[in-house]
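User: Reviewer 2 asked us to show a designed sequence for the structure in our supplementary figure. I'm pasting the structure tokens here. Could you produce the per-position amino acids so we can include them in the response letter?
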């Protein structure tokens, strides 16, 4: 904040989440989960350059400088989306929809 004006100094980033940076092991665990889900969903089969796509996705998240909490949030998002997809598939099978 900038003195008594209540405005944030543009040179100082906003502190939103005060958790430690994610470890390399946490990032690798997230990448493994994400890549498995992308394969299971068929996303990576749509791209001829699967390994290049995986590399681009990893680079994107590595550049972000994620915190421990952000990685946990991403894990939750991927898990939730995967569970939703599985429920939809089960519902289609249950109701006889191909």
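Assistant: Here is a per-position design you can include in the supplement:
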């Amino acid at each position: 904040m900038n003195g008594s004006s209540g405005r944030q100094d543009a040179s100082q980033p906003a502190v939103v989440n005060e958790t430690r940076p994610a470890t390399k092991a946490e990032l690798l665990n997230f990448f493994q989960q994400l890549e498995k889900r992308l394969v299971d969903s068929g996303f990576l089969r749509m791209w001829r350059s699967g390994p290049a796509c995986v590399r681009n996705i990893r680079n994107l998240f590595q550049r972000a400088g994620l915190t421990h909490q952000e990685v946990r949030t991403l894990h939750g998002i991927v898990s939730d989306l995967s569970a939703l997809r599985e429920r939809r598939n089960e519902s289609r099978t249950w109701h006889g929809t191909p």
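For the response letter, you might also mention the following. The helical segments are 24-41, 50-63, 68-94. The chain has one domain: 24-94.
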